[in-house]
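Open question from group meeting: does this chain pack into something compact, or does most of it stay loose? Before anyone orders reagents, we agreed to write out a predicted structure and look at it together. Recording both the input and the output here so the notebook holds the full record.
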Amino acid sequence: MRTILNFNEKWAFVKGMTEAPAAIGSDWEVVNLPHTWNALDGQDGGNDYFRGSCLYAKTLKKAELPAAEQYYLEFRGANSSADVYLNGAHVAHHDGGYSTWRVNITEKLADETVICVIVDNAANDTVYPQMADFTFYGGLYRNVNLICVSSSHFDLDYYGGPGIKVTPTVEEKDAKVEVEVFLTNPQEGQTVVYTVYDKEENVVATVESKETKVCLDIKDVHLWHGRKDPYLYCCEAELRQEGEVIDAVCTRFGCRTFKIDPENGFILNGEEYPLRGVSRHQDRLGVGNALLPEHHEEDIDLIMEVGATTIRLAHYQHDQYFYDLCDEKGLVIWAEIPYISKHMPTGRANTISQMKELVTQNYNHPCIVVWGLSNEISIAGADDDLLENHRILNDLVHEMDKTRLTTIAAVSMCKMDDPYLLIPDVVSYNHYFGWYGGDTSMNGPWFDKFHAMHPTIPIGCSEYGCEALNWHTSDPKQGDYTEEYQAYYHEELIKQLFSRKYMWATHVWNMFDFGADARAEGGENGQNHKGLVTMDRKYKKDSFYAYKAWLSDEPFVHLCGKRYVDRVEPVTKVTVYSNQPEVELFVNGESIGKKTAPDHFFYFDVKNEGETTIVAKAGTLCDEGKIRRVAERNMDYVLREVGAVLNWFDVVEIEGRYSLNDKISDIMQSKRGKLWFISMALKLKKKMNANKKGKGDKDKKSGGFDVDLKADGGLMEMMGGFTVLRLSSMMGMMNINFTKEELLKMNKKLNRIRKPKNLK
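C-alpha cells returned:
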C-alpha cells in the first residue's frame, strides 16, 4: 500500500556549489524545507540577487523506510532547474521551477544513500521565465516527499500527475463522471475499484472493473457553484490484487458547467456570474516563495474578504495546496505557465513540458476554467516562431483537456488586429492607462473599441493597477505613489470595468505587493507595490476596501486616509467606503450629515482645525480616524527615492518652464520639448548599446526589464505618464544610469523651454 513520507527536515545546504560531492560536509548549513536562498536579497533592490547553483544534500537509510517495491522522490517545486544525484550518480534532470516532478530512485537506492540535489536559477535561454517583473527565487521552496509503492501502482512518472483523471458532465439534474486511471506495471487479475463520495463521505456510486476508464452516475447532482456553493465530491480508485488493496489514489472534483459569452461574460451553471477579482504572486516579505500552509491560508482569507470571485494565478503554476483552497472556497481560477515577456526560440520545448505539467497536475480542480498560454509575450512584436509556439500550445491544451478554454494576457502595445489574438479561445489585456500612460478615462473606451472590432471574441482585463506606499497627499497625481492616488485610480477603474458586462473577467494587478528585485520605485526598492495589501500582509490599503464595497456581502464601513493625519488645507476631503446604503460622518462627536452613494464611495468636506476625530457610521458599524491641521506639509508623507541621485524636491523649477518633474506627455506638447525628448532618447540608446558591448549578456541575466527603446508608439504612450525624473530612475532597472551632473544638465536644458499656455 502507498506510503508518503514528508522529506523536508534537515537538508545540508551549500550556496554556489555546482557539483555533487562524495560526502556531506560536517560544517555545512542545515536547513528545513521549504527553503529559498533569495528570501532577503531577492526583494531588497539593486537587481543583484544571487542567481546560480546551490546544493541540497541529505542521507537516506533504507532500513528506516517502509517496505516497498518502488521508491520515488517527489519535488513539489525546485526553481528553476535541478539535477538529482544518488551516491554521486546522476539520476534525473528537470527544467521548470513551479511544478511537481518525481524521480524513481529504486535502482540506485543503497543501504545508505547520499541524495544531492543541485538547484540552479541562473539565466539560460531554454527555461522560462527569463525576463519578467518579479524575482526568480531559487531553491527547494515547496515540499519534498518520499513515495513508497508496490511495483504495480497508479502512475507517478507522467508529468507529475496524480494518476487519476476525473471528467464530470452535467446532464440536467444528474451527472456522468468519467474516471480514467493510469497504471504502471499492471498485472493479470488486478482490478480497480472506483468510488465516488459526496461531501459527507456517503458512497454515491461505485464499480469494480478491469478497465482503466469507467463512467459512474450521480443522481440529483449537487453543483459546484463558485463562492455561493463550492460543493465538492471525492473520487477514490483502489488497485486490488486477490482482494487486497495494493495502491490507492483519490481526488476531489466538482460538477459544473460554464461558458464565456462575448456579450454576457462568464456564465456558471446557466447563470451570469461576473468574474471580478485579483491576480496573485506567491511570495511574501522575508519569506520569498518558501511558503507554509498558513501563508496560503492567510492569502485565501484576504482574497475572500475583499469579495473576489476569481483569481489569476500569475505567472506560473502555484502550490497544489492553493488550488485545493480555491476549490474549497469557490474561486474561479485562471492558471498559466511562465511563458512571459520575452519569446525565446530555444525555449519552445520548455513551454510544452511546463504546459503538460500544468494541465496534467491540475486537471481535476473544478476551480480552473481557463489555461493561460502566455503573458505579454508580444511586447517586442509577434514573429512567425512566436505565433507557431502559441498554436502548438493551444492545440496541445485542447487535446489534453476538452472541457476548458485557453486565454492569453496581451500587453497594451499589442495592436487589436494582431494575429496572435485569434489563437486562444478568449483574450484579456494588461492595461495601465492612468498609471504608465494616458489617464484613467481611457480604459473603458478602449475595451468598447475592441469589443466593437471583435464582437465574437470575449475580452477581459488581465492586469490593471497602480503603486502605492505610505505616501500621502490631498492633491493626488498620477505617478506620485500615494495611497490616495491608488484609491482614486481604483475607484475610476471599478466604475468603468464593472459596468461592462461583456468583459468576461477583470483581475487587479495585484492582490499583494511582491518581490521584484530589479525595481527602484516608490521609495522602497525591490518590490512592485501595486498590491491592495502590503507584502507582509499586515496592512490593507484603502483601495482594498473600495473593492470590498463593491464585491463583498459582509457589512462594513471604512474611513480612508487613516495614515494621513497631518494636513495643511483648511477644508479637507474625507472619503468613506461601504457596502451599506447610507453613511453618516461625525466630526468631534457632531454629525455633519448623512450621504448615500450608489457607487459605494462617500465623500465629505471636513473643516480641518486643530486636531479632529472623525467617525464614519453605517447603522451599527463604525470606523474612526484623526486629522490634524499643520502649517507646512509633513515631508514624511512625501516620496523620497532610496538611493536616488536626485529627488523631485531637489529639482530647480521655473514657473512656465519645463523641468525633470514634468511628464513626458506634457513635454511632447512643445515643439522644442519634442526635439529635447528625441535627443534624450538617442542618449538612452547610446547608453543601452554601451551596456550591451561592455556587459555582454548581463542584462539578460538580471531577471529585470529588457525593453527595446526603439520608437514604438504604444511604448511611448505608456511612458508618457512618467516624469522625466521617474523615467530616468526606471532606466536603472535596465542598467542605464544617469549621474547627478547629467540630470542637472538635463534639467537646465528643460528650464530653457517654455510650456504652452494650456500647461502653465
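Observations to bring back to the group:
The chain has five domains: 3-149, 164-253, 262-536, 571-635, 646-759.
The mean pLDDT is 93.
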